[in-house]
Design goal:
This is C-type cytochrome biogenesis protein CcmI. Pfam families: TPR_8, TPR_CcmH_CycH. It is found in: Cell envelope. Keywords: Cytochrome c-type biogenesis, Repeat, TPR repeat. The structure is a single chain. The chain has 469 residues and is mainly α. It folds into 4 domains: 2-111; 139-239, Serine Threonine Protein Phosphatase 5, Tetratricopeptide repeat (Alpha Horseshoe); 309-372; 390-467, Alpha Horseshoe (Serine Threonine Protein Phosphatase 5, Tetratricopeptide repeat). The protein has 24 helices and no strands. It has helices at residues 2-23, 31-53, 58-87, 90-111, 121-134, 138-151, 156-168, 172-185, 190-203, 210-223, 226-238, 242-254, 263-277, 281-284, 290-296, 309-321, 326-338, 342-355, 360-372, 383-390, 394-414, 419-431, 435-448, 453-463. The N and C termini lie far apart (94 Å).
């Protein structure tokens, strides 16, 4: 009842507000007519003065007067019509307004829903989100998953599903965060802890960070987790410890069932590293297939080029005209690798990255292609830098290397918690034959991380053997 009282009062008020301009007097509208009549009176006086002074004849004066009177009469008639219009028809106006209000109320009574509860904006937005999700919109479905996980933060399955969903659409940072929530709820489930560490790697552009390596090291020690062993070897490869990476991957391969899903990935990376360092794959993988042996060849002289210059030129020309073809860029990179031109292959993939900078899924595919082609593990200096270094004398090269190592040592003085930096410094000193400096750097790093057991274990595994020779 109260609702109808309110709605009726509102309708009447709205009707009066609409009718008010038609009901009130409008004296200001006649001001223009009064001004025109005043002008005509002045003109008639002017005609009388001109006739009295002899400027015009009596006939001319009479004709001018008649014309002025005719115009004044026309204005007077307009004045009368304006007065009638200004007074209007108040009863008709009120009647029309009342009819409009009544019709509006009748339509709402028939078509509206006065008994429906209030629907806030948030609820309407939620309905729209559900509709989009039911229509197959993946991001809307993921947003609903996120809401469910936030509303029930102890729901492990919700966090895992949300993390996997974010990974599917290339939102790796959000996937990492969701896996982190799941890992905090499942501290005794190694598969979730391992997935969390892998998500950290994915969110870090596939680089194994110190945080991820520490998690993988713990999983390898406590649960002998295959994924952990894989990424620990990948971390060594990314730190250019290729021999250590090969040992780790071959060990993982020997201990795995041949049908295990990670076996193809491990074999691919072994082939990539063998090509990078120019090793004979048959000595590393006695059961290497002919295709793997061919892919591991590092010198074009060892066999004919798999792709002709014409194939490369044709594809490059086509991509120059239609660059929005990421599969084409990946194929071009493969052709360059087959022709022993890794720098050109990297350039092709980098061009594809620029074209698809805002497409996470495609960027992921490009990164996977870079890994598969063996281009990610050996990101050394570009051709210009190699050419510049080739022009230096041996003494100048040694000095350049010394400066780089000294710069790393200086940076570690300011940022001593950089575990990767200490490992690199120890390895650099050992490679240069500066055993005492390597031992001192290792000793300092042990002191820095003496209260961090996980970092200590990582340090000993990555650099301990280098100072015990």
């Amino acid at each position: 009842m109260m609702f109808w009282i309110v709605i009726t009062t509102t309708a009447i008020a709205a009707g009066f507000w609409i009718a008010w301009p038609f009901l009130r007097a409008k004296p200001g509208e006649l001001s223009g007519v009064d001004g025109a009549l005043s002008i005509y009176r002045d003109q008639m006086k002017e005609v009388d003065r001109d006739r009295a002074s002899g400027l015009i004849s009596a006939t001319e004066a009479e004709a001018a007067t008649l014309e002025i009177e005719r115009r004044a009469l026309h204005v007077s008639r307009q004045n009368e019509r304006a007065l009638v219009a200004s007074r209007g028809a108040p009863m008709a106006t009120l009647g029309l307004t009342a009819v409009t209000a009544i019709l509006g109320l009748a339509l709402y009574a028939g078509l509206g829903a006065p008994g429906a509860p209030d629907q806030p904006l948030a609820a309407r937005a939620d309905d729209i989100l559900h509709q989009k999700a039911e229509a197959g919109d993946l991001r809307s479905s993921i947003q609903l998953l996120a809401q469910k996980a936030e509303q029930d933060p102890e729901n492990l399955d919700a966090w895992v599903l949300l993390a996997q969903s974010y990974a599917v659409i290339g939102e790796y940072a959000k996937s990492r965060d969701a896996y982190g929530k799941a890992a905090s709820l499942a501290t005794d489930q190694p598969e979730i802890q391992s997935a969390y560490a892998e998500a950290i790697v994915s969110a870090n552009n596939d680089v194994v960070s110190a945080e991820a390596r520490e998690l993988f090291l713990q999983l390898a020690q406590d649960f002998n987790d295959p994924r952990a062993h894989y990424y620990l070897s990948l971390a060594k490869a990314q730190a250019q410890d290729y021999q250590g990476a090969l040992v780790g991957w071959v060990t993982l391969l020997d201990s795995s069932d041949p049908s295990a899903p990670w076996v193809p990935l491990v074999r691919r990376d072994i082939v990539d590293v063998a090509r990078t360092i120019g090793a004979d794959l048959r000595q590393i993988l006695p059961d290497a297939t002919p295709a793997e042996i061919k892919a591991a060849q590092n010198n074009v002289a060892s066999g004919p080029a798999l792709s002709s210059a014409a194939d490369i030129a044709n594809l490059a020309n086509r991509l120059a005209k239609t660059p929005r073809d990421f599969k084409g860029w990946i194929e071009l990179a493969r052709l360059y690798v087959d022709s022993n031109d890794p720098d050109a292959a990297r350039d092709a993939l980098n061009t594809a990255r620029v074209e698809y900078a805002n497409a996470p899924f495609v960027s992921r595919k490009i990164d996977e292609a870079e890994q598969a082609l063996g281009l990610a593990l050996n990101k050394g200096p570009d051709a210009a830098a190699v050419a510049a270094m080739s022009e230096l004398s041996q003494g100048e090269r040694d000095q350049m290397i010394d400066d780089m190592v000294a710069g790393l040592a200086d940076r570690l003085q300011d940022d001593p918690m950089d575990l990767d930096g200490w490992v690199m410094l120890v390895r650099s000193y050992a490679t240069l034959g500066r055993d005492e400096q390597a031992k001192q750097a290792y000793k300092t790093a042990l002191t820095v991380f003496e209260t961090d057991t996980v970092s200590l274990a990582t340090l000993k595994e990555a650099a301990g053997q280098l100072v015990q020779r």
